[in-house]
């Protein structure tokens, strides 16, 4: 809870209703960032993100660089250097991350628990909020932000998640893409909470 991601964790894994997601994507208007529905226009707002996922919507923006020695950073914050085959450009294999950090051993010290927490939050960010289309890799660019759990709880993660959702909806609606990524769980929960 200290890091500010408990709400995302609490939503958990839900089965996605792809016909519902597809119908929302088809109704997305990139010019106004709204869903054009037969009864009215609607959109996901920052307040929705805060209410559904429990993420902060005020605070410093999520910024950083991808020009980092990822092996060194993983050694520092995860306590292990992934094999080169598990790092692709600025992302790490989600499977490797899960296998290495599935459950912390019993009786470990706070440093080891923090490493597991870093890995868990990184997997949560890459697997639920900032997903890519394949879902096989997690972006490492968020890892430097996880150094201080108190500090990351003040960042405006909700703004970053909403911007990513809008970007993905616009990309899919304009490019006639066949797949969407991003915080799709947020979109589905929004639909069930506000449109029923």
UniProtKB/TrEMBL annotation:
InterPro entries per UniProt: AminoTfrase-like_pln_mobile, MAIN-like
Residue intervals of the Aminotransferase-like plant mobile domain: 4-194
Domain of life: Eukaryota
UniProt protein name: Aminotransferase-like plant mobile domain-containing protein
Species name: Vitis vinifera
């Amino acid at each position: 809870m200290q890091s500010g991601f408990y709400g995302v964790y609490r939503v958990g894994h839900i089965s996605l209703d792809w016909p519902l997601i597809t119908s929302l994507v088809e109704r997305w208007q990139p010019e106004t960032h709204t869903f054009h529905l037969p009864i009215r226009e609607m959109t996901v707002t920052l307040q929705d993100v805060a209410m559904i996922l429990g993420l902060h919507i005020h605070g410093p923006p999520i910024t950083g660089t991808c020009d980092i020695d990822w092996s060194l950073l993983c050694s520092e914050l995860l306590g292990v250097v992934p094999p080169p085959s598990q790092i692709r450009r600025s992302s790490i294999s989600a499977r490797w991350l899960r296998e290495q950090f599935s459950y912390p051993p019993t009786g470990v010290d706070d440093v080891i628990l923090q490493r597991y927490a870093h890995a868990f939050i990184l997997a949560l960010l890459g697997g639920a909020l900032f997903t890519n289309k394949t879902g096989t890799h997690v972006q490492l660019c968020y890892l430097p932000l996880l150094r201080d759990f108190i500090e990351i709880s003040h960042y405006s993660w909700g703004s970053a998640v909403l911007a990513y959702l809008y970007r993905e909806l616009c990309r899919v609606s304009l490019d006639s893409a066949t797949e969407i990524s991003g915080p799709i769980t947020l979109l589905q929960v929004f639909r069930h909470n506000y449109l029923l």
